[in-house]
Amino acid sequence: MKLTKKLIQDIVKESVGDDGVIISDYLQGKKNVSEFVIAEKLNVDLHIVRNILYRMHAQGLVLYYRKKDRQKGWYISYWTFNPKRVKELVPLLERQKLENYRKRLAREEENEGNFYICPNFCKRLEFENAIEHDFKCPECGSLLNLQDNSRTIEVLRQKIKDMGVESED
Questions:
Q1: How many CB atoms lie within 10 A of CB 56?
Q2: Residues of the chain with pLDDT under 70
Q3: Crossing angle, helix 5-16 and helix 19-27, to 10 degrees?
Q4: At residue 154, what are phi and psi to the nearest 5 degrees?
Q5: Are 118 and 140 in contact (CB under 8 A)?
Q6: pLDDT of residue 163
Q7: 37: buried, middle or exposed (CB in 10 Å: 19+, 13-18, 0-12)?
Q8: What's the pLDDT score for residue 167?
Q9: Which candidate, 112, 106, 118, 165, places its Cα nearest to that of 143?
Q10: CA distance 88 to 45
């Protein structure tokens, strides 16, 4: 599998969120970049940069080491993007996505014809939850409508099929 910029961005986006893409783009091809430099070059608040970097580190997408600043006495982290981890995450994220589709499909099939949706699309509730709220949207108070979820079931089956797996009917 060839590591393209798009593949890296997709994996970063899926594993840590959209905000991780700008940092991964910046770090590619660089080694041991200070979090202060990253924040300054990207014009992003340091605390936000750290949060994103820690999320990326939790997924193994970045490596770092800390060094104590002799003058100020605090630690500075230096970050490097880990492209090898992207290749490892591809099959893991595909399996997670497939599992999520299967769980959602099972839930949709088990509750076919038992979903209620707000006309303003605030909430979608199963029958039991709709009863608890007197068939009114808990967000805006509008009367909930019965939703035909057969199209949702079709779409989920197609997504599973597109992944090269047949859904268990």
A1: 25
A2: 165-169
A3: 140
A4: -60, -45
A5: yes
A6: 86
A7: middle
A8: 52
A9: 118
A10: 30
Residue with token string 């605390």: 47
In the numeric block, the tokens 């007197």 are attached to 134
What pLDDT sits at residue 53?
A: 97
Domain boundaries, the chain: 5-81, 91-162
Contact of 126 with 114, CB cutoff 8 Å: yes
Helical ranges in the chain per DSSP H: 5-16, 19-27, 35-42, 46-58, 83-110, 127-132, 150-162
Classify 54 as helix, strand or coil: helix
Q: State the DSSP code for 61.
A: S
The three-class DSSP label of residue 169 is coil
Q: Between 1.10.1660.10, 1.10.10.10, 3.40.50.620, 1.40.20.10, what CATH number should domain 5-81 receive?
A: 1.10.10.10
Tens-digit pLDDT profile for residues 36-69: 999 999 999 999 999 999 999 999 999 999 998 8
pTM confidence score = 0.69
